Amino acid sequence: MYIANALQPEGVRPSFERAIDLVHLARQTLGDRALEREVLDLFVIQARSVLALLQASPDQKRRADLAHTLKGSARSVGAWRVAAQAEACEAMIAASDASWQKALDDLSGAVREAVGAINGFAQAA
Fold it and tell me: What is the pTM of this model?
């Protein structure tokens, strides 16, 4: 959560109330709606792909790297809950914590929520 604060200009705090922080996204894309849409579409593709690879990979280092990748992507679009869950999953995997599978389930839920919100934006446009 602290990282999300560091990514914002001084005095601006991230929105954890929504699955996607639209203010952050607009700032990242300089208000370009077409670019917002493109970035969100790419995030959906990557998030789904990374989750599938995370679930299938037997390699601990690869799983930690995948969670780290998703964390960065989520931060770039303002999907703070996804980023937080990916960070937790990454830490548990790296520490060989047996409960990393539960963290992956939580991450999957956060991704589903973000993808649902993104799909809702597309329908509203």
Answer: 0.86
